[in-house]
Specification:
By secondary structure, the protein is α/β, with parallel strands linked by helices. 38% of the residues lie in helices and 21% in strands. 33% of the residues are buried.
């Protein structure tokens, strides 16, 4: 899945005294970022940032530039929504009681979130921490910016192995940033990793850049109208990477034709191709769980005790493995992007994709695409 992270520099407003044109351009860029974050076919993140677009700044900027204060307040609202976007969905996902209060607050403040899209801060999603690093060969930029580049370099070079490029969005008309950092020690702070300390003698990578001014204004054209169309197409073009079990079609019958939506499901299946390529070549100890997360997928792994001691629970997650054999599947992707405030109970729109890795075939097995499975007590 294509992935991007918006750099904090993009959200830095023009200095007081800038002309009206500068504020018009800035407003358009914030609107572009806001829309870009809501794309369903890609993964977009933001580095953690502070909002300096306060009321005092708005009044001073409006007075000096002649740009309407009401328009500047709308820009501020967009930035605040971007900041809140992460914590709102995170709370909704982790704690339903807190989520209920937050949803009430959203409605009382007339905030509108029309699509269920899990977007996170880069730091929370990838859990990368630089422990030590030599001096980077980079002509410009402060230490914080260089650290962000190092994290992107780790992602592209050491985790994606160049199969998947992660872009940084800057207000800069350049194609890429070449980064070279010696003696790089970093941690992946995830509980499921056996070893989370890594050392790279010399990190060398080109980090692709997307100029914020070139973010497309329009959403991509819808490719697939139904989930079945996705399956029929993916089973042909991904046959060298994905094995679809014989239960997949039956699972698709349990959900609406437009569940997902279909383009989002396709993006997840396309990501499994990348996952497969990395698995075939990646001999380090990056876990499957972290790898899928790094590739932008929302997913869960069933609890071991449920699979071992709850017979009905496990039986409900046995699917054909493509060789006419029923196999328990635990790891499952969650591609749905419907409205979290209204549609979470609509099982026919709540899609799950159960997968496992076939070591012998060196392919991903998709055992099931269908409705959310029964969890029980």
């Amino acid at each position: 899945m294509e992935s991007y992270t918006i750099d904090p520099s993009v959200f830095a407003p023009p200095v007081i005294g800038s002309n009206r044109t500068a504020f018009v351009k800035y407003s358009k860029n914030i609107e572009k970022c806001y829309s870009f974050l809501q794309r369903k076919d890609i993964s977009v993140y933001v580095f953690d940032f502070n909002n300096s677009f306060d009321l005092g700044y708005i009044l001073a900027a409006g007075k000096s530039s002649g740009y309407p204060v009401d328009f500047l307040k709308q820009v501020r609202s967009k930035i605040e929504n971007i900041i809140k976007f992460d914590s709102i969905l995170e709370c909704q996902y982790e704690n339903e009681e807190i989520a209920k209060k937050i949803r009430e607050w959203i409605f009382s403040n007339n905030y509108s979130f029309k699509t269920r899209i899990r977007k996170f801060y880069f730091e929370r999603w990838f859990n990368l921490r630089i422990v030590n690093a030599g001096k980077s060969i980079f002509p410009n930029g402060n230490n914080a910016f260089i650290e962000r580049l190092n994290k992107l370099g780790i992602l592209n070079k050491l985790i994606y192995l160049n199969y998947e490029k992660h872009y940084i969005i800057l207000n800069d008309q350049i194609e890429s940033i070449y980064l070279q950092t010696p003696d790089l020690e970093y941690k992946i702070e995830k509980k499921d990793l056996k070893t989370n300390n890594y050392f790279e003698p010399l990190l060398q990578t080109d980090i692709p850049v997307l100029d914020v001014n070139n973010i497309p204004d329009n959403l991509p054209v819808i490719k697939f109208k139904t989930v079945l169309e996705v399956y029929n197409y993916a089973s042909i073009i991904f046959k060298d990477f994905i094995i679809f079990g014989n239960d997949v079609k039956k699972g698709i019958e349990t959900i609406k034709e437009t569940a997902g939506p279909p383009d989002r499901i396709y993006s997840y299946l396309e990501t499994l191709k990348t996952y497969c390529l990395i698995k075939r070549n990646n001999k380090n100890i990056i876990s499957d769980v972290y790898l899928l997360e790094a590739l932008g997928c929302v997913f869960s792994d069933e609890k071991i005790e449920d699979m071992l001691f709850k017979k009905d629970f496990m039986e409900n997650r046995k699917f054909d493995n493509g060789s006419n054999q029923k196999t328990p599947f635990s790891l499952h992707l969650k591609p749905s992007t419907f409205d979290p405030l209204n549609d979470t109970s609509l099982r026919k729109r709540n899609v799950r994709i159960y997968i496992c890795w076939d070591k012998n075939e060196q392919k991903v097995i998709v055992g099931y695409i269908g409705e959310h499975k029964y969890t029980g007590d």
